[in-house]
Design goal:
With 111 residues, the protein is of the alpha/beta class. It contains 5 helices and 5 strands, in the order H-E-E-H-E-H-E-H-E-H.
Length: 111
Amino acid sequence: MTVEELALAVGGEILTAPENAGRTIGSAMTCDLLSWVMARGKADMAWVTVQTNINVVAVAALHDMACVVIPEGMRPDAPVTEKAAEEGVVLIRTDASAYSVCCTLHTGGVA
């Protein structure tokens, strides 16, 4: 499953780095505790979180994640999207629940 396919499947909007939307998602995680994700994140991962602060971008960039999915209708502020664009981090926002996004990832073959 690619980042773009995930965004379409969850009715999401790619907010940043659309040039990276063709990237393949290799694994996924849902977690809102930044230290947990810092310790366990991986390259090519899709991270589902309701966190919308700038530290999310730092953690995603640190691990070269495929994307960050922000569910539940949450929307990051302009400085966060600007930093994500600068770092090449794909942010996807969706009205879907975090659970629904995870189900979509699983159905799409992402473990």
